[in-house]
């Protein structure tokens, strides 16, 4: 990395930002953990706990919480860990603070709703020519924070930088693989959230384990088709940020996307089913479906999620629509 001696910066101290801060510290880095609220920063500095977003996890000593964005200027790399839809405003706020050479590692999973832009493209628009990377893969914040074994993928077009970043963030319990297929890695993370909502809905409606397995397999087929159309490499999607994250998110109520779908399946409305939590798949569904339509990619499960969220279909109508499509060859 250009200034390999600096600390790792983390922008966003929610569940994932806090877990990544601990992981980066465990990997031997000093960490500056930025959050927008000065009160929260003071509380984290005093109690060393983030009770609101990651209860029960103690911040390691090498982490300095702050609400001063300027502190990130000294960092050798900054991980952006705020919700996907805040990527543009955060990149704009960070742009005057960071050197053009400081890599920004995107850790959110989504597509910009208002423009349909992939998050890397948003950042490249704001910081043209500056290095951008994506970190994604099957990783619940609580697992990572508790030091349970986890593996993720970091992609950057600059292969040497991808390797350096992956090495810097890898520790005893977090293994970071590297790739250059930025598009594939970001598509895996963004699309699996939409599919996980469908999986949760299947569980919530009591449609059975067979339906869930079918949905994961057919959802993966959609993911692959979409990634191919947008320049992602199929091998990437068969890895951690694709199949790995799809399986994790579709099989656990720890996932907020799955739980949101579960509550939809149990009869809650799209407005109440999030219970105030961040549900990235709900924010990304319409953009994903619009991008798929633009390239003629068939994504019936993602379409069904979008139709349910927009109120056009009930869950039962969505199931009927999916089950009564014309019979076709599997691949
Ligand atoms: N929680 C998890 O297990 C994982 C989450 N992710 C991804 O990481 C991203 C963040 O997720 P979480 O940390 O879990 O969410 P969270 O809801 O726990 O935290 C979000 C954080 O962003 C901050 N924030 C919200 N809007 C902001 C804005 N406009 N400007 C600055 N800060 C703002 C909040 O104050 C909060 O600190 C999501 O895209 C999610 O998909 C990825 C892997 C694992
Ligand atoms: O991305 C995640 C795990 O890899 C977290 O999923 P949720 O956002 O659905 O909780």
From TrEMBL:
Catalytic activity field: sn-glycerol 3-phosphate + NADP(+) = dihydroxyacetone phosphate + NADPH + H(+); sn-glycerol 3-phosphate + NAD(+) = dihydroxyacetone phosphate + NADH + H(+)
Glycerol-3-phosphate dehydrogenase NAD-dependent C-terminal domain: residues covered: 181-319
Gene Ontology BP term (one): phospholipid biosynthetic process
Binding-site residues for substrate, renumbered to this chain: 109, 256-257
PROSITE patterns: NAD_G3PDH
UniProt: NAD(+) binding residues: 12-17, 141, 256, 277
Family statement: Belongs to the NAD-dependent glycerol-3-phosphate dehydrogenase family.
List of residues binding sn-glycerol 3-phosphate: 109, 137, 139, 192, 245, 255-257
Protein's pathway: Membrane lipid metabolism; glycerophospholipid metabolism
Alphabetic keyword roster: Cytoplasm, Lipid biosynthesis, Lipid metabolism, NAD, NADP, Nucleotide-binding, Oxidoreductase, Phospholipid biosynthesis, Phospholipid metabolism
A family per Pfam: NAD_Gly3P_dh_C
Entry annotation: catalytic residues: 192
Annotated NADPH binding sites: 16, 36, 109, 141, 256, 278, 280
GO molecular function: glycerol-3-phosphate dehydrogenase [NAD(P)+] activity; NAD binding
UniProt GO cellular component terms: cytosol
Name listed for the protein in its UniProt record: Glycerol-3-phosphate dehydrogenase [NAD(P)+]
Database matches in InterPro entries: 6-PGluconate_DH-like_C_sf, 6PGD_dom2, G3P_DH_NAD-dep, G3P_DH_NAD-dep_C, G3P_DH_NAD-dep_N, NAD(P)-bd_dom_sf
Entry-linked HAMAP family: NAD_Glyc3P_dehydrog
């Amino acid at each position: 990395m250009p200034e390999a001696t600096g600390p790792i910066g983390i922008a966003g101290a929610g569940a994932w930002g806090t877990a990544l801060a601990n992981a980066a510290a465990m990997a031997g880095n000093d960490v500056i953990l930025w959050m927008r609220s000065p009160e929260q920063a003071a509380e984290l500095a005093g109690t060393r706990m983030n009770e609101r977003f990651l209860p029960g996890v103690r911040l390691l000593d090498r982490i300095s919480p702050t609400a001063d964005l300027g502190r990130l200027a000294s960092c050798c790399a900054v991980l952006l860990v705020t919700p996907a839809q805040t990527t543009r405003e955060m990149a704009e706020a960070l742009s005057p603070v960071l050197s053009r050479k400081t890599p920004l590692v995107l850790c959110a999973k989504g597509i910009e709703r208002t423009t349909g832009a992939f998050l890397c493209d948003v950042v490249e628009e704001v910081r043209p020519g500056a290095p951008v990377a994506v970190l994604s893969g099957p990783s619940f914040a609580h697992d990572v924070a508790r030091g349970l074994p986890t593996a993720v993928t970091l992609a950057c077009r600059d292969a040497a930088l991808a390797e350096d970043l992956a090495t810097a963030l890898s520790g005893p319990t977090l293994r970071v693989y590297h790739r250059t297929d930025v598009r594939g890695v970001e598509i895996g993370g963004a699309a699996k959230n939409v599919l996980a909502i469908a999986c949760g809905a299947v569980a919530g409606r009591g449609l059975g384990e067979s339906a869930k397995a079918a949905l994961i397999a057919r959802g993966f087929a959609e993911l692959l088709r979409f990634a191919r159309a947008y320049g992602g490499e199929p091998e990437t999607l068969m890895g951690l940020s694709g199949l790995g994250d799809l399986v994790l998110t579709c099989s656990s109520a720890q996932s907020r996307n799955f739980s949101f779908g579960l509550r939809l399946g149990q009869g809650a409305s799209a407005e109440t089913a999030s219970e105030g939590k961040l549900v990235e798949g709900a924010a990304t569904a319409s953009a994903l479906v619009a991008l798929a339509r633009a390239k003629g990619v068939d994504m019936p499960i993602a379409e069904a999620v979008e139709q349910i969220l927009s109120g056009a279909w009930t869950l039962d109508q969505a199931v009927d629509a999916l089950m009564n499509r014309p019979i076709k060859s599997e691949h």
